Amino acid sequence: MEEEQDLPEFWFQFSAATKKQEFSVLRDYLELYARSEHAFIAVSPILSPKLHADLATVTFAGDHHDDLKTGIQPFVAMDGSEEYRAAAMDLARSYGLLYERDHGVSLSDLAQLKVSKELRSYPSTFYDLDRSLGLFGNLLGAVLGNVHPLTVAYRPFWDSFRKRYQTRLITEIDGRKFIKAVHILRSVQLQCYDWFEAKRTRTPPDTPNFQTIWKQIGLNSYNLPTLPPSLYFQVYPKANLIRPPPADQASKTPSLASTEDASTTSTISTLTGVTGATGPTGLLSRTTTPRAGAMVVNENPDPHLVSLIPFNKKLKDIMGNTQSPSTDTGETICLSYHAKGGCFTNCRRKSTHGITLSLAEKGRVENYIADRLTKMEP
Ligand SMILES: [Zn+2]
How far is the CA of 260 from the centre of ligand 1 (A)? Predict the structure, then answer.
């Protein structure tokens, strides 16, 4: 995918190495980089069997932006806890020995090495983040070279991380805990993916700008990137607890409306925000401040009104401090019930739950939501 002449000198040595030497040549090179003057930190990323395979086939990006196991991106370089690192290093060492003895390492050999999915350990503290970003810098610099656009963009990002935003990030990640270390890694990973994807589709890639991540955090305007489901549920393990009950149990749960059809379940999941692993806000507010009152499900929501609320926006944010439109008789329409598909029995606008909106009322709701959405755009 890369133009050969753009890659560091190392790749010529690598291609000259025999199959058996490949693994140790690569590992030694990564370690050498971590000791060089260009190193981001003095620790080398571990050459896992997967990373080895990707590098040997010059696979720098996965096929999908949610693939966190492939290519040159921060989730590949991170190493989580000391225990994790020790285990991963053990695995890499055994793999290396096996590989050098007989380069046809089979899957059953790997299975014997106990390649466990549980081995993955996501960084959670500022310290972990610091280390993961440093390891990724080393991987980037070593593999793509110091003059590659991604490395060139990454260095000022790293410098301002260490020199300028450290205190702020400690507050955010170890203190407030709304921004997680993995969100930062995810933002970096997506930028890398975007860059490689542009290359792959032969469109000119934008100059990556990792520094906007710090800038946005500094200005309180950082949008948490969406996390793939597997990662999401590791980061927010409590989210598992509030999954909607299976359809056959929905009717037995006293707090839920006593309807049994499939649409009930989907409406409930819309309300609890569990369907999309898009962000913590809905889930966290739901777990920390449970709403009193039982859920009321709108079994026949107007599909057009429902379609007006984008999946990634919360009704509360769309409305801001404004009042939703009124019915023809002057009562405030509950948008949660009519446009989101459900509400709660203790709602202030519950008098409008269950009514069928007139054409004029619907029109007002449509205009109101459209107007609020345009005011939300940056
Ligand atoms: Zn309501």
Answer: 21
